[in-house]
Amino acid sequence: xxxxxxxxxxxxxxxxxxxxxxxxxxxxxxxxxxxxxxxxxxxxxxxxxxxxxxxxxxxxxxxxxxxxxxxxxxxxxxxxxxxxxxxxxxxxxxxxxxxxxxxxxxxxxxxxxxxxxxxxxxxxxxxxxxxxxxxxxxxxxxxxxxxxxxxxxxxxxxxxxxxxxxxxxxxxxxxxxxxxxxxxxxxxxxxxxxxxxxxxxxxxxxxxxxxxxxxxxxxxxxxxxxxxxxxxxxxxxxxxxxxxxxxxxxxxxxxxxxxxxxxxxxxxxxxxxxxxxx
Length: 278
What we know:
The structure is a single chain. The chain is globular. The chain has helices at 53-56, 142-145, 177-190, 194-202, 260-271; strands at 19-23, 42-47, 65-71, 81-82, 92-93, 106-117, 120-124, 133-139, 172-175, 214-217, 220-225, 228-235, 238-246. The termini are far apart. It has 278 residues and is of the alpha+beta class.
């Protein structure tokens, strides 16, 4: 019982990537939970050469949106029940959610196809991480794939008062002169694409959110990107990035600690002393 009726079917099925995603988000906390929350976020899907995929891409450019089937490569295990961010009534069976913690960690997203250059697909509304293995591509056919009258399952449950709203997409991100100088310095000396990471995260919504490491501190809103702390304020749908600071405490930056990464943070604080920047 529960086994395939086809005796020729192998016990294990083998999948091979057809390509990989290149995106600004490199960790799970930076990625949007759904493509709708990633509105406008760019990415590239680069297919592997030497497999005749250039012929397989014929006619795909005529479609506005495409399905991307991919592998949740950052999720090593699965869980029968998970706690989705929007659940207000406890854990749900993983098959009733879009959680990446699945027996077969296959993801499914709809993205907007901008153009195709050779084996590279330029897309937007991408909620995938850098390096995500892509398994397949299919056109999104609105008249068969869209069912606007379908029910929402447990999502239809009325959330209690005070439940934070989902992140709102398409915020305008603006860097103050000080913040822009600091971001450029960090990108040069730490090799971190900080500006791109800040835009990719805050564009999805600047509200305090544990999955995107946004917190409300006494001094205001703060985004954590690796060991850096980005301060910002919100006016309507405009996010003003005001300053950047090191996330290390003074005791962690003593010269006795020889970690090379700490040297960048010491040099940053020498240039922009704490309490004087922004």
